[in-house]
Amino acid sequence: MILVLLAAAAASITAAATTLPSSLPVLPYSFRQTTVVETLDRAHKTSERDTKVEEVFPVEGKLLFHRLISRNGKPLSPKEEEAEAKRLEAFRQAIRDGKKPKHSEQVTDLTARFSGEELERAFISEEIGRETLRGRRCILYKFRGRPGRSIKIGGQYQKFFDVVVDGVVGRLWIDEEDRKPARGEVRLKKPVSFAFGLLVYIKQFDLDVDFERLEPGVWWPLKAEGIADARFLIFQPCVKRGQVLNENFKRMPPQESPTAKAAAVAR
Asked: Does residue 121 lie in a domain region?
């Protein structure tokens, strides 16, 4: 949800300078993803810690598959390896059958998932300077949620998204050459709640995300770190600190889609 928020902010800022293609290109990269999630007590000391390492790669050139490699430092057992192999085959078969597998991600640029027109209504942004970030010139913006608006994601109004945006402020570094986000910082300027706090009450949310330039014009999240202090259903307080690291990006050879293969066979 929060990475979506950051990507949405980036898209709204760059919408005026970038025309998104109607047919989005596939991201032909595999990478290793390490996710660490810590549950904190009231003193913000770690009470639980979960670490998982996954290999992420596109299947049939369309959707990303996350293959579990290890959990909390322990490699998978033979039985677990077999389960992952079956899950991959089911994932691949669903794509071949024209269905969307569970827990799948589109293999596209994150900032291209949203309507620029809708997002311009969601955020107010202001250019505040130029900075060099990891050797590349960037335009620095500050942004905040625009009050009194509703936006659509995937053609539907998202009430919870509207509530969260109301409390958001942040900064965004846009690569000057590619017009893509290189870094983002998101903070809550005030607590936000949904259904008068009966369902969700978010007291704190901090998130920093760095993006990696894989090739000219193609960027992907490299590292995300954040902490959230929230309460769900009144009696369920939850403080989480997390980190996601993507590394070892490798460009994959072109993959022919099942449709193209069938057409080739027919000819």
From this structure: no
